């Protein structure tokens, strides 16, 4: 069990694409790795692509929720993208709604969401700096 | 027209194998994609229960017929401590471990027929059906 | 032993039996437009041959493997009949009408006729039942297939705008149909990368608890996939039913009409429609 799910860094974001049928330990490893990497790279956003996952059972669902909660505490936004319709229907029937996890249809839309939401925070900070630095300019 | 196989349930990776074999059986029975996903997810839940709380056992996968419809039948057996209060164990949110307590009750909602039998000290057996 | 005698009788009197059998089938009122003499004769001869072999090798136990060719023949015939819309009686008549000519033959033969008659009756009753069963199974399959294709036909998921889908539901919803529609909708969301789906139930007369639950589950599933659903066109009676049933719609967005829902969808997508001054 040396296989691991790769975590890619891209700017302020971490990208994960789950391409294997995850066993429980693999999910737990991912959770641990990701937490560590968020801190190491001071990542602002995490995108998890699950379009290749054929099922999400309560264990994987719980792992995703857990990752989102930990990331939130570490000030990173998490978005889960690409859940298949059959998987979503099954998850709902199972009784899991993954409350508090942001979702998007695909990687592209997920990235756009991260950019909107992460940059929102950064822009506010930048604007405040502008206000302080250049009083003559009208901030826009 | 009936094919049967029995898989071991001894370690975590066995759950993955069971999922894959159940998927294959459901595909062969030509169940719809949503039905396939439901029975595979139910198998995953029950197999994990059997491993964690029952200390392992085995899983029987059968592709068969039910009232003239193609069907998949699963029987997952463990030899663990068993469940003393089945009614309680089948309630949403009830858990004896640290899970969400959706395993048994959730799996039951995913399949067309669900039968559980358990004797304290004798282990637990869960039978599940999904048909076309 | 009796069955071997039966096999011999069938074999030795083939031509006479065939003639008589076909006459009986005609007399039983099989419509000549549906089945010409040629196919009746062919079917009858095939079955007779298969019967002789089955009886002489497999005895009177129709579960015996030697009986398989006979059963396959009957299954095929029943299947064709049910596909072509033959009434079940005509299908059963085919096998059962062999009884009469056979009984006459047995009457004329010597030996233990009663015993032979009994064996014969039992055998043909079984075959008759088997035929009916095959006919019914085939019919059920036809019905199921028709149902499925009807369901698919009745589920148009249409694109209103880039990123906006709509399903106008019309007619009564049972949980089966709702499920099919909803699966189609979710798949279309993925295929068209649509952020918003409008479920319009203007044309739905009533909603029961199961259907309301299915709608809710779909909305939750869409949310898990990253899309948003809007329900439009809820009639006053349905609104009352939903409240009465205690179905919790939670944070589901509802709009009075499809137009209102579409407007909301466009607003969410930051699309603004501007009237053309020149045209005005």
From TrEMBL, chain A:
Gene3D superfamilies: STAS domain
InterPro entries associated with the record: Bact_StressResp_Reg, STAS_dom, STAS_dom_sf
PROSITE patterns: STAS (PS50801)
Limits of the STAS domain: 3-114
Domain of life: Bacteria
Protein name: STAS domain-containing protein
TrEMBL record, chain B:
Domain Histidine kinase/HSP90-like ATPase as annotated: residue spans: 36-129
InterPro entries from the UniProt entry: HATPase_C_sf, HATPase_dom
The protein's name in its UniProt record: Anti-sigma regulatory factor
Originating species: Pseudomonas typographi
From TrEMBL, chain C:
Residues covered by the STAS domain: 154-265
Gene3D superfamilies: STAS domain
InterPro entries: Bact_StressResp_Reg (IPR051932), RsbRD_N_dom (IPR025751), STAS_dom (IPR002645), STAS_dom_sf (IPR036513)
PROSITE patterns: STAS (PS50801)
Coiled-coil region: none
The entry's keywords: Phosphoprotein
Protein name: STAS domain-containing protein
Species, as recorded: Pseudomonas typographi
């Amino acid at each position: 069990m040396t296989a691991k799910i790769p975590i890619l860094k891209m700017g302020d974001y971490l990208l994960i694409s789950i391409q294997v049928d995850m066993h429980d330990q693999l999910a737990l490893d991912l959770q641990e790795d990701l937490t560590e990497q968020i801190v190491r790279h001071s990542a602002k956003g995490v995108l998890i692509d699950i379009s290749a996952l054929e099922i999400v059972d309560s264990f994987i669902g719980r792992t995703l929720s857990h990752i989102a909660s930990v990331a939130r505490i570490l000030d990173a936004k998490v978005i889960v993208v690409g859940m298949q319709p059959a998987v979503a229907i099954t998850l709902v029937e199972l009784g899991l709604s993954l409350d508090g996890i942001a979702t998007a249809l695909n990687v592209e839309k997920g990235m756009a969401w991260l950019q909107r939401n992460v940059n929102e925070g950064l822009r506010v900070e930048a604007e405040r700096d502008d206000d302080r630095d250049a009083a003559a300019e009208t901030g826009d | 027209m009936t094919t049967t196989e029995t898989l071991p349930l001894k370690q975590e990776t066995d759950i993955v194998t069971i999922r894959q074999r159940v998927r294959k059986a459901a595909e062969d029975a030509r169940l719809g994609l949503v039905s396939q996903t439901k029975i595979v997810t139910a198998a995953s839940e029950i197999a994990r229960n059997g491993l964690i709380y029952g200390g392992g056992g085995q899983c029987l996968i059968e592709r068969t017929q039910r009232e003239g419809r193609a069907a998949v039948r699963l029987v997952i057996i463990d030899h663990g401590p068993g469940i003393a209060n089945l009614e309680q164990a089948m309630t949403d949110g009830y858990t004896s471990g640290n899970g969400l307590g959706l395993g048994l009750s959730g799996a039951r909602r995913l399949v067309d027929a669900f039968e559980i039998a358990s004797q304290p000290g004798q282990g637990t057996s869960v039978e599940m059906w999904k048909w076309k | 032993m009796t069955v071997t005698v039966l096999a011999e009788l069938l074999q030795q009197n083939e031509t006479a039996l065939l003639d008589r059998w076909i006459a009986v089938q005609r007399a039983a009122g099989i419509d000549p437009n549906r089945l010409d003499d040629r196919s009746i004769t062919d079917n009858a001869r095939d079955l007779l041959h298969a019967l002789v072999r089955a009886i002489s090798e497999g005895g009177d136990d129709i579960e015996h493997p030697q009986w398989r060719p006979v059963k396959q023949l009957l299954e095929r015939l029943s299947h064709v009949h049910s596909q072509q819309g033959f009434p079940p009686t005509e299908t059963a008549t085919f096998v059962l009408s062999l009884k009469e000519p056979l009984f006459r033959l047995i009457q004329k033969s010597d030996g233990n006729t009663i015993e032979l008659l009994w064996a014969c009756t039992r055998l043909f009753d079984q075959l008759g039942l088997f035929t009916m069963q095959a006919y019914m199974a085939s019919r059920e399959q036809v019905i199921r297939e028709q149902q499925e294709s009807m369901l698919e036909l009745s589920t148009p998921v249409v694109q209103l705008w880039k990123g906006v889908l709509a399903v106008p539901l019309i007619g009564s919803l049972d949980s089966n149909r709702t499920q099919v529609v909803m699966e189609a909708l979710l798949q279309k969301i993925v295929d068209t990368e649509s952020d918003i789906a409008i479920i319009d139930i203007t044309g739905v007369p009533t909603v029961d608890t199961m259907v309301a639950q299915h709608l809710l589950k779909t909305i939750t599933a869409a949310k898990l996939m990253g899309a948003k659903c809007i329900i439009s066109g809820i009639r006053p009676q349905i609104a009352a039913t939903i409240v009465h049933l205690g179905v919790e719609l939670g944070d589901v967005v509802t709009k009075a009409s499809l137009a209102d829902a579409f407007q909301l969808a466009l607003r969410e997508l930051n699309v603004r429609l501007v009237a053309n001054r020149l045209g005005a």
